[in-house]
Amino acid sequence: MPSIDSIRTAIAERQTSAAALAESCLAAIAERDPAIHAYLALSPERAREQARRVDALADKGDPLPPLAGVPVAIKDVLSTRGVATTCGSRILENYIPEYDATVVQRLEAAGALIVGKVNCDEFAMGSTTENSGYGPTRNPRDPNRVPGGSSGGSAAAVAAELCVAALGTDTGGSIRQPASFCGIVGVLPTYGRVSRFGLAAFASSLDHVGPLARSVKDAAHVLQVIAGHDRLDATSSMQPVPDYVGQLEQLSLRGLRLGVPTEVFDGGLNPAVGDVVRAAIERLRASGATLVDISLPHSQAAIAVYYVLATAEASSNLARYDGIRYGRRAPADTLSALYRLSRNQGFGAEVKRRILLGTYVLSAGYYDAYYRKAQQVRRLLAQDFERAFQSVDLICTPTTPTTAFLLGEETAASPVERYLADVYTVPADLAGIPAISVPCGDSEGLPVGLQFIAPAFEESRLLQVAHHFEHIFQS
Amino acid sequence: MDIAHIAALAHLDLTPEEASAMQRDLLSILDYVNQLNQIDTQGVEPMAQPLVAGSPLRSDAVQPWFSQAEAMANAPAAAHGMFEVPKILDRG
């Protein structure tokens, strides 16, 4: 599938039409998605109607909006008016939203074709997409493997060319890890950079919405459209949005100070993945970047902090699924039984586990020992990053310690073993700073991702360096 | 850990098998989390969320949104513009 720029040009020059792009995308999904299962719901009428609007502009010779005719997929935790939104959960199997998430509305206002909703771990809790209530998604690079998660459907749809770009969400790595596993680009924006209005909340102090795409430039195009203040999201920032796409070529790697945390190359990193990442970092050095050893001492505690804070917030956010106003309701004689039965039948095991852990750490007598303590260590970790960014421009790490897991491999592991696989992605979510995963090679035929992390609101720098790296890597 | 009490607080109804598996998982996660106690956090201000610079409250003005019928369109049970629930008061 072509790039966003080439789609807009082709429509403007009448070499193709948005209608033809919509039909070819829908046909590709019908033909190839049964083997991948990225999509949970399609919105063909919505995509076709939008294509007619775009083609009408082209007919008149009017300027086309930035994402004109671009087929996009939306992670199923984001609200889409008139299109089923399940969050990967059986508790919302009949839920049809009455409104669009701000990011969905902005994509459509920019000319994008919303082709459908894509699979994810239930309420974005997981790293394989196997926790979906609607069956797993397969990795397009190897159908015996998971695409990662929780935005696994988003990554698989992009990698399999069943859309040009997709929206995902990232609370502990859920955009960057599946991007890495599927060999594509995924961006975690700064906390507050992209509106979360219409996102089903998992952990409100950690949830982010961001793009997945096959190139840094396509990801920059999507971020350009979805970033910016939203009066419907009290946590969204008023900071102006720079011209990410226009500035993409503006930076040279010469003189770039690239921090490499000493902590990342020990512990659970797979040696073959480590070799691929070291070789990628060496190419950055050879292209002019200066490597600087840095230390993020509290990053070792990030997983422990994350599983206290994220579960505490989840236990509160998921209290709304009670079978009363929307979603699945179990028949019951009393209100209390109705709540308990609806929730017990509607939620999967991982969601229950996290609700219970979150309830425990917030319960009387444990709040200070767990929740307050984790919030304090979160501050120390954020300060580690602030200190590091006094001497470096960007930080570089592997995105994940391994390549994509086999289907079933992670579900056999203990919860703590599973959670430790997020060790490189969780710190940026906790600090609220932006990061990107870009493909940097293969290990035994499976993609490896390189992660760059930047200071808050420095998405431009992140995208510029990742764009440069993409060129070095592909040359 | 009283898993039944935690489940009741969370409005979850666990089978005995689920309860014992969950208790085992929670204890192992908490065992891992206890490493936080080795970190000195004396005087450290808790971080509730990343700082979002300049996000003032919007004006408190009424905006058109969806109708009552739309707001209730997903209700599992509704009557007369209200959500229906099982009886919650026993008149005896």
Describe the structure concisely for a colleague.
With 475 residues, chain A is of the alpha/beta class. Chain A has helices spanning 4-12, 18-36, 44-60, 102-109, 152-159, 176-182, 216-226, 271-286, 302-317, 335-346, 349-362, 367-388, 415-420, 426-431, 459-474; strands spanning 39-42, 71-75, 113-118, 165-170, 185-188, 208-213, 257-261, 290-294, 394-398, 435-443, 446-453.
The level 1 CATH classification of the largest domain in chain A is: Alpha Beta
The backbone outline of chain B, from C-alpha atoms, is flat
* Number of spatially distinct domains of chain A: 2
The CATH superfamily of the largest domain in chain A bears the name Amidase signature (AS) domain
Oligomer: heterodimer
Topology of chain A as a string of helices (H) and strands (E): HHEHEHEHEHEEHEHEHHHHEHHEEH
- Main beta-sheet annotation of chain B: 2 strands, antiparallel
Query: What is the third-level CATH name, the topology of the largest domain in chain A?
Result: Amidase signature (AS) enzymes
Count of helical segments of chain A?
A: 15
Number of beta-strand segments of chain B: 2
**C-alpha geometry of chain A:** globular
Strand order, largest beta sheet of chain B: 1-2
Number of E-state strands of chain A: 11
State Rg of chain B: 23 Å
Distance between the termini of chain A: 21 Å
